[in-house]
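Subgroup meeting minutes
Present: P.N., E.W., G.H.
Scribe: E.W.

1. P.N. recapped why we're keeping a running log of single-chain structure predictions: easier to compare across weeks, and new members can see raw inputs and outputs side by side.
2. G.H. added today's entry (213 aa).
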Amino acid sequence: MGDLADTAAVAEALLPKGSAQITTVVKSDAPSLWCGTLGEYQKTGLEWLGKLYKMNLSGILADEAGLGKTVQGFFAHLACNEGNWGPSLVSQNFNVLKWEIELKYWCSALKILLYLGNPGELFKKSHHHLLLMDTLPPTALKDLWAIACFLIPGISQSYLDFTKVVQSFILRRSKIHVEKQLPRRYEQVLTWTFSNRQKSMYKDFLSQPRYVC
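Output recorded in log:
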């Protein structure tokens, strides 16, 4: 238990606190492979991920403002600054194609392989785990216990203070805290006129009987 407490203490020391969660005092440039810019809160997340990697620690990025650029920038950081070109496994139940498109756009120098199937065997071979959440972490004990097992394989169930341990590995950021750094969103309404054929098809559609089940 002493080793576990020491590991949690190291993770806690690396975790940004207060305003440091959304701003960074290190004005470092984005990795050279990164084809774009990073916001302050994204640089903060990238620096934190880099420190975890140096210490061979796992972590959880719980970010309501989006996860893509921070993690994709981390892949560029590993290649540029750590000489680690992978492979890195990103396991998702949704938005897989979106991640593939964004990685090719922001980190075009990286090779990307889209794998459809059970990543269980591949996951067992990984040593550095990063859990991504687009919502704040759960509070139920069973969920926190599952997270603890993910972060620290082999943790004993007799270690009752695992909730405190888990908190040391989580960087939380909500939209309300970083909304000033988010790019503006614009809506554009486009209108068009049906062709004669489209008008005919639309009239036929409207004339069809409606059924309510």
